[in-house]
Design goal:
Blueprint: H1 6-9, H2 19-24, H3 28-33, H4 53-75, H5 87-101, H6 110-124, H7 127-143, H8 152-168, H9 178-191, H10 199-220, H11 222-227, H12 232-248, E1 283-291, H13 303-313, E2 314-322, E3 325-332, H14 335-343, E4 346-355, H15 356-359, H16 365-374, E5 385-393, H17 396-404, E6 409-412, H18 421-429, E7 433-439, H19 446-455, E8 460-463, H20 469-478, H21 486-498, E9 501-507, E10 512-514, E11 517-519, E12 524-528, E13 531-536, H22 539-551, E14 558-563, H23 569-582, E15 587-592, E16 600-604
Parallel strand pairs: 5-6, 5-7, 7-8, 14-15
Antiparallel strand pairs: 1-3, 1-4, 2-3, 9-12, 9-16, 10-11, 12-13, 14-16
Helix pairs in contact: 4-5, 4-6, 4-12, 5-6, 5-7, 5-12, 6-7, 7-8, 7-19, 8-9, 9-10, 9-12, 10-12, 18-19, 20-21, 22-23
């Protein structure tokens, strides 16, 4: 693995890196000496005693740019040698959501900037590292809630609160991760405070120890040492804080445009809606509105009056005000009227408008009538159904299966494509149900789902512990959504997950020695229970070997093989023949999953 500042620098203090990485390593000081062409050395903030909102916003932009520049290097710090590293992208998109929330903010009030920035990060958090990062800044914002500016001691307390909240966000904190890097760096920086300390010296100490702590992560977490990498989340945090520090040292780090991958691509109309189509379902319209003092009295702003107007021009209304931010979701045939009314009171932070006739061509006439009749009454009077289901899916086959078993909304995502907290919230808004069951279907999506559950107030959200897509499939197919009590459904789903075993094969993208298995770049590896158990040049042989490990000392009676995008029919035929010969009592089914990364996903029941 290559890691320009964090991982490469680790060669100076750690023996955990691979031989290949060692050849490419540089010290942190050498790496930092290579300034980007657009950066320009300034006088810096040598003696600054107080940090205000404007400087903090500049530091945040510098940290974001630094992470953007190195996101791919962070992605490569993947424990498993498979092509699914996305920590750098998740952390980048998380902090970019915070940047978007303060983009048009012009105030030096640190509390205001921190509040909006952290709120934006909470909504945009992706992946476990992204969620932890958002909680770190949420804790800081909480501590600085009444501070228009902060001296080193006050900001140090905010950093401590950030670490505390980050740890609290994880059910079972693991040392040797981003949590350790944050904690040890903050402890060192706080212990180094003196009456002569400045904001600049505080961050100098913070970044210095963060670098050292990152280098130590392989010694703390054995799996990192075995893989020859430092912790990816810790590396992402180091880049962010290093960017903060570089701004304080006077470097003008040019803003980098947000990459297209930071936002979802627009819906491309297909033959389902053409030149002669009639707009039947209207537009799903969502926006975040920053109320403006010169346009309205923010404290006295009447959200109920806005809801009353929305009920006259649309339905499926969700509208609420958090401090000076208004969030709106409405289904309407005239989004321009909705936006015009909202624009009277403030400026838009985000706007999304989607043609629901493209999205819902399969709606029945009865559903259409229900949607049209809903326009005649406010959303509060609409009868909610007892249960709804949101499932994360990666692949058309799995999406069809989830819908077949009762999923109301599908959130697109999976390996290398972790949905944000905000995407879960948007999915909940589309379901009128008292209880919503959520299937994250990926271990790296669990925390974003749980964070969305904590933020949502209009329904009871139940996050089912489905940490892979096979577990989610079993959970939903086992659920009785007509049961009287939601707790019974949760128990049934959870118990179903505990009765199955899942594994998958994936191409290897680098050499590695893990769990006693030697992996050569280009092999196919089999992963079972978060461990590499086999590595073969031939994909079919790797899949059969994985199956043997899955069925060892077990009495499973059924095997489902979900075929991914890269599945080959010849390999499927070979596997079917192998099962028939070796496990004659085992029923085997092949299903189209369409998943990325894993050509074959095995589910034993």
């Amino acid at each position: 693995m290559s890691e320009k500042k964090a991982d490469k620098a680790s060669q100076k203090t750690s023996n955990a890196s691979t031989k290949e990485t060692s050849k490419k390593s540089n010290t942190k000081s050498n790496a930092q000496a290579k300034k980007k062409p657009q950066e320009k050395k300034k006088g810096g903030f040598l003696n600054i005693k107080y940090l205000g909102g404007l400087l903090f916003a500049k530091m945040v932009r510098g940290g974001t740019s630094e992470l953007r520049s190195n996101a791919e290097e962070v992605n490569k710090l993947n424990v498993f040698p498979v092509p699914d590293g996305d920590t750098g992208d998740n952390m980048r998109m998380t902090i970019e959501s915070g940047i978007a929330a303060i983009e048009n903010l012009d105030t030096d009030d640190l509390a205001d900037v921190m509040k909006l920035f952290s709120h934006g990060m909470l909504l945009g958090a992706r992946g476990n590292s992204g969620v932890i990062l958002s909680q770190f800044f949420a804790g800081m914002a909480k501590e600085l809630a009444s501070e228009t500016r902060a001296d080193p001691a006050a900001f140090a307390r905010a950093l401590e609160m950030g670490v505390e909240q980050a740890y609290m966000s994880v059910m079972t904190p693991t040392e040797g991760t981003i949590l350790t890097v944050a904690r040890e760096a903050v402890e060192y920086a706080v212990a180094s405070l003196t009456p002569q300390s400045t904001i600049r010296s505080l961050f100098a100490d913070l970044v210095k120890e963060m670098h050292e702590s990152l280098n130590r992560t392989p010694e703390v977490l054995g799996v990192l040492k075995e893989a020859g990498v430092v912790d990816s989340g810790g590396a992402g945090l180091f880049y962010i804080m290093d960017g903060f520090n570089r701004v304080l040292n006077g470097e003008e780090i040019a803003d980098v445009e947000m990459p297209a991958s930071a936002t979802k691509p627009p819906v491309t109309p297909t033959t389902s809606f053409g030149p002669d189509s009639v707009l039947t379902y209207g537009y799903c319209t969502e926006f975040l509105l920053q109320l403006q003092n010169f346009k309205t009295d923010i404290e006295a702003f009447d959200i109920e009056a806005l809801k009353a107007y929305l009920s006259r021009v649309g339905d499926s209304i969700v509208a609420f005000k958090t401090d000076s931010i208004v969030k709106v979701h409405v289904h309407t045939k005239c989004p321009e009227r909705v936006l015009a009314v909202a624009h009277r009171y403030g400026e838009f932070l985000t706007v999304k408008i989607e043609n629901m006739s493209v999205q819902h061509t399969e709606l029945s006439k009865e559903e259409t009538k229900a949607e049209e009749s809903a326009k005649e009454e406010p959303i509060e009077e609409t009868v909610c159904k007892p249960y709804g289901v949101v499932a994360v899916s990666n692949g058309e086959g799995f999406t069809d299966l989830f819908r077949e078993f009762g999923a109301d909304e599908i959130v697109e995502g999976g390996q290398t494509n972790n949905p944000s907290t905000g995407e879960f919230l948007a999915a909940y808004d589309k379901i009128l149900a008292k209880h919503i069951f959520v299937l994250p279907n990926n271990g790296n999506i669990m925390m974003a789902a749980e964070q969305s559950a904590a933020l949502y107030e209009k329904a009871h959200i139940h996050v089912i512990p489905a940490k892979n897509i096979g577990a989610g499939y079993v959970a939903l197919s086992s659920a009785d959504l007509t049961a009287e009590h939601a707790e019974d459904i949760v128990r049934t789903m959870t118990e179903a997950i505990g009765r199955v075993r899942t594994g998958y094969v994936s191409p290897a993208v680098r050499d590695a020695d893990m769990n006693g298995v030697h992996v050569t770049n280009g092999d196919t590896i089999g992963i079972l229970d978060k461990e590499i158990v086999v590595s073969c040049r031939d994909c079919g042989e790797a899949t059969k070997a994985l199956l043997d490990r899955m069925l060892r000392d077990s009495d499973y009676s059924m095997l489902t093989v979900f075929k991914g995008k890269d599945a080959m029919q010849a390999t499927c035929d070979e596997l079917a023949a192998y099962v028939e010969q070796t496990y004659p009592a085992l029923e085997v089914y092949f299903a189209e999953g369409g998943q990325e990364i894993a050509p074959y996903f095995l589910l034993a029941e």
